[in-house]
Amino acid sequence: MIELSALRSKPTLTGDRVRLVPLSLEHADALYAATQDIEIRRLTGTHTTFDYEHVLEWCRSRPNQSDRLDLAIIEQQTGRFVGELALNDVDAENESAAYRIALSAIEFAGQGLGKEATWLTLQYAFGKLGLHRVWLHVYAFNMRAIAVYRACGFSVEGRLRDALLWEGRRHDALIMSALESEFRTRVFPAEDGS
């Protein structure tokens, strides 16, 4: 049975390298800067360029959302905002939710921060929320992200052909999922630069 109160509580999740905290107004400036980064927009397939007021309102409204979990990723050592993630599209009847993560700059890729953030989120999703399945989609060209998701227990279960049109080229998206029963038997993947 899914525990919806765990979505409303907006937890802080702490790992060795990252701390996940409720996304709020204090993260608006850093999140806005990330939305302007063309490479981050390409990796996430985001065509829209958001204005500052939109990002401000988004961050202001996150603590009041009772049907999803939005967390800021903070680097433990420096206290810097390095990205954000969400568990959304929660389907309580089927004990399932979608997962989304975006690091705020390419400089943070390859340091294991996204991997640890994903691992902490899956622990919360399966352990506290009571989810059975967490799914995501990732563009097939984003090999680094695919490797991280695989290391955290996601498996490819399908392909959306030509799902993204970016600068005149079409790209497939992979649908991946992690199941609680499989995740429970895993240990945190060793650091390997992903």
Structural class: alpha+beta
What is the H-and-E element order?
A: HEEHHHEEEHEHEEH
Q: What is CATH's topology name of one domain?
A: Aminopeptidase
N- and C-termini, Cα separation: 33 Å
Coarse morphology: globular
List the total number of helices.
7
Quick one: CATH superfamily of one domain?
Gcn5-related N-acetyltransferase (GNAT)
- Any idea what the radius of gyration is? 16 Å
**Percent range for helical residues?**
25-40%
As residue ranges, the low-confidence spans are none
Mean pLDDT across all residues, rounded? Answer: 93
Q: How many individual β-strands?
A: 8
Strand order of the largest sheet: 1-2-3-4-5-6-8-7
Question: What's the level 1 CATH class of one domain?
Answer: Alpha Beta
CATH architecture of one domain: 3-Layer(aba) Sandwich
GO molecular function: protein N-terminal-serine acetyltransferase activity; protein-N-terminal-alanine acetyltransferase activity
Keywords: Transferase
Pfam families: Acetyltransf_3
Organism: Haloactinospora alba
Structure report:
One of its GO terms (cellular component) is cytoplasm. Residues 18-181 form the N-acetyltransferase domain. InterPro entries: Acyl_CoA_acyltransferase (IPR016181), GNAT_dom (IPR000182), Ribosomal_N-acetyltransferase (IPR051908). This is RimJ/RimL family protein N-acetyltransferase. GO terms for molecular function: protein N-terminal-serine acetyltransferase activity; protein-N-terminal-alanine acetyltransferase activity. With 194 residues, the chain is an alpha+beta fold. It has a domain at 5-132: 3-Layer(aba) Sandwich (Aminopeptidase), CATH 3.40.630.30. The protein has helices spanning 5-8, 28-35, 38-44, 52-61, 113-127, 143-151, 180-183; strands at residues 13-14, 18-22, 69-75, 81-91, 96-103, 133-139, 155-166, 169-179. An eight-stranded mixed beta sheet has the order 1-2-3-4-5-6-8-7, sandwiched between helices. Strand 1 and strand 2 (18-22) form a beta hairpin. Helix 2 crosses helix 4. The model has no long low-confidence stretch (mean pLDDT 93).
